[in-house]
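Please predict the structure of the following assembly.
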Amino acid sequence: MTSFLGKILCVDLSARSAASVDVPPEVYEAVLAGKGLEAWYLYNHIPAGADPLGPDNILAFAAGALCGTGAFLTGRWTVACKSPLTGGWGDANCGGLFAPAIKQCGYDAIFVSGAAEQPVYLFCDGKTVEIRDASAYWGLDATEAERALHRDLDGVCRKKPCVACIGPSGEKLSLISGICNEGGRIAARSGVGAVMGSKKLKAVVLAGSRPFPCADPEKVKTLSKELGQKLLKMTLPTGLGVFIGAGGAMMGHLPNIPLDGSMTAYMFREWGTQANTSLAITSGDGPIKNWGGTPRDVRLMEAVYNPEHINRIETAKYHCYSCPLGCGGKLNIRGRKYVEFDETHKPEYETIEAFGPLLLNWSLDSIYQLNELLNRAGMDTISAGNTVAWAIECYENGILTKEQTDGLALTWGDTEAILTLVKRMIAREGFGDAIADGVKRASERFGGKQYAMHIGGQEPGMHDARNDPQLGVHFVAEPAPGKHTVGMSIEYGAMSLCDICSWAPPARIHPKSRDLEDTEEMALISKANACYTMLVDGAGGCYYGQMMGVHMWKLVDYLNAAEGWDHDGDWYTQIGERIQTLRQLFNIKQGYDPAAVKLPDRMQGIPPLLSGPLKGVTLKNREQVSAHWRAFGWDGKTGVPLPETVRRLGIDRLTEGET
Ligand code: SF4
């Protein structure tokens, strides 16, 4: 027995049909489940040149291999499709309870093709699969729709169903929309919500209760117990968050030092991802003023966004399935300025940065409101923040006029104007409608391309490549460009990959300048990082588990126990390499040109900044990306995987001869 169910659910909304399809065991051995299974299926079944918003695109929902086995930090689900933002591979992931719900219906993944004529939702309880009328839910925000579905199915299902749905942004085909679950958590990236909207699929509702298979549940339990004991030992006095900003300022001036993974675990348990905000502002990691530089009052800004302010109004922490950390939280925001809601999810670091320092907005209260508005609408906060930043800079430089912005004077830090513009983007009204497809489309229409921060069509996550050039490699080389969750130098230092992968260079203290090099060593570091991330995604693991390092979160041991295998880290790392290469082949098949993707000049340090921790830095990003591709066995100029690489990884056997 393995942890795989061996079946996927294939739904065709045009034909209003659904079929359970067996997956050969060799597919799981090659790519695991989660993103790997999606890469295998989407490569083989989305025709070349498919319209991302047409019926030929396929929207996939997958749980990872370890979901349900008892392994800690493995409750993430991945949604994938051809991205309408980039024209290539698109994916996003999220936590909560939706991943185990997929498996409890008896499937490792659900693939939805075609398009309905009227709004529908997909219902599955492990026995029946139905495509049901969703006209009563169309138009509701994601939180309202989920509540209405729970209300209407109460007493009808044997258990409370799990719901993944779109809000108004996905319905209105905003290319920066995502898919939500559990009251506004969101799989936000790649425009996946627009793809769901184009299929007129309001929600996927899962209410199965089948058991989870696992080869050696006792061994998995022992591994989780060991990890739990390590996590329990990590206690420090409360209130230490006030020192994080000073730590970041120090890091900006020191060589890069490999961190202990337990520090990551402590920070995410104590504050959530918000722990990073102060650190990012002072170290140079967090972009400020549309990626333009560092203001003089950076320490004041750090104090405004210090995570201790957020911890003080936190009413409850919440966890994804099978996670002892619980980096999520609910906040009591009643009575705060700008705020229309009583309660909200704790905003993630990415949201705080995108609507705080990026826009020189000094109101943390407004970010609580923006976070709730955007999560309910199902709009990606990273993309929306970058788009608003572009609009402000265009307005300040006379590229946009008040007539074009429907009377809004867009200036840095104008909280009211930012709120108004975001509401109009969500409603797709006037100028808000014109920019609701993200910064690339907006700049093609209005100009100001020099201020449009996107990579291959997708707005970048809130981390500056001038601070971490390895991140810049992944921003560009990643088949879903602009994602910040594939690799960074600081993460590599914490993960100790050389202890499971024979060819991964050891992490060591090094001057920041080393990360700018296009040497073979740096290319192997970025390759190992990307391969391990893909392995984590195939397992359904959490990025923050990954950052704890291989000695704390023992992914290889977990996988061997869950699958009844006895493979070493090299074998597993090659699974990650295979998944990444399959995703790149997907892009090539779809006509996406990897060589045309580049960092905006500003993000490369052209021209270099004159002050702050990133002063004088200019990247050699193109050279580093080429070296990264060569390390993968892809053509260094074009980014196309070489035939011998495809054969070495056995991908030709997985792709029905299409490569
Ligand atoms: S660390 Fe946070 S995001 Fe990761 S699994 Fe736990 S609760 Fe979810």
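The radius of gyration is 23 Å. The chain is about 40% helix and 10% strand.
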